[in-house]
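Q: How would the structure tokens look for this protein?
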Amino acid sequence: MSTTAIHINDRGILCACDGVVGQPSPGYALLDREPIVFGAPAERAARLDPLIANNRFWDDLDDRPLLGRAAGGRSHADLAFLHLKQIWQELKERATRVRCVVPASVKGPQLALLLGMARECDLPLEGFIDAGVAAATTWPGSGRFLHVDLHLHKTLITAVGVGERVRRERWELAASAGWSGFVDCWMRMIAREFVAQTRFDPLHQAVSEQHLFDHLPSLLEALLEDEQVEVQVPFGAENHRVTLTREQFAHEAETLYAELLLRVHRLRTAGSETTIAISERLASLPGLLARFAEFNDCAIVRGPSGAAVAAASLLEDLWQPSQDTVQLLCAAPRLAEGTVPGVEWQALQQARHAQAGGAPTHVLYRGQAIALRAEPLVIGLGPISSRHRLQIVGAAAGVSRLHCSVIRTAAGAFAIDHSRYGNWLYDEPVVGRATLRAGDHLRLGRPGITLELITSE
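A: Here is the predicted structure in token form.
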């Protein structure tokens, strides 16, 4: 019995059969062809005639008819069905059961559409599994795991807890920071440099625009090793050239990087170690890895783009068979290390700690050291009924009446958030609770006040 998994990521729909990953099929369609052209051939012609190209049908999956003569009254769901049907035609001879790997952002009506498409294709769908969960089953570590996955029109960050089992916790969406957004900003930057240096605009003619679009991934790959790259665009008998630096690419994408990092930031827990897993696609973006290095207590690892789909094809039977419904799994058992062929997680950065001190014994406020005990130290504007309390005096905008608690146990010291306005540890937001170390500075509210954690024996 052969098990196949299909990963719905429009940057490239991936399939794996018993752990072996095939070639990606990008979520592009040329609507004026009969039959409609999908995948890499459509992507290679998308800039030649953008009026007949569509690359949003997986991301905006719905059954509303599209506007425009080229669409022929079809919907995004119709296009996705035809793309899935084409992919399935190449798999059905050897696949006896199928799992579908989906992003955390997928909605219930979209799952219903996917189920209907699968049945219309006679595809033996067992069920759905979250992409972040599937990828994390192959990770050999444990703890908090952030799966950062680049799609065509978004980047999805999924927080996963990894212990004896793998379980999805929360997710965030960087809606503008998709591959298409990066491509558009870099092509505009390259075009500006061409115009400034050679008076040639590669975006003025469709042929030269398509050439630049096709070669952009190889330019980014070259920048992984080199500080600069020569960009060549042939036009007629001439071959136009400009030289661009990695710093120029990183600067141009700064707004998109900032959105992506903010979303990752919101899923972290200040003071607690987190592993951020980026795909090969993300690792190729110039300057992005250096931006991740700004985070404290975060290890950065890189995994192959096919980790999730390969793992899904090798998981034991987890879905309950049903004639009418299929399950979406947001938890799964871990796979033994080495189970998935070719999937290796490469460490790119070790966790960097803001301070190397041990657990603090006191909180310092206005020159007074307040001891930390197993009984929570309750902090706020008050009045506070607790016997062990720190009442903030004077004007303190951004501090709640009951703002936070600090507790010290055998396992360490922790800050627990109760506020409306938030707490920050070295300008990193405290989500729920955060581990404290001697020397840390805990800021209460915005602008708020800052407390210092110290050791005083």
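The chain has eleven helices and 29 strands.

The chain has a mean pLDDT of 91.

Upvote if useful.
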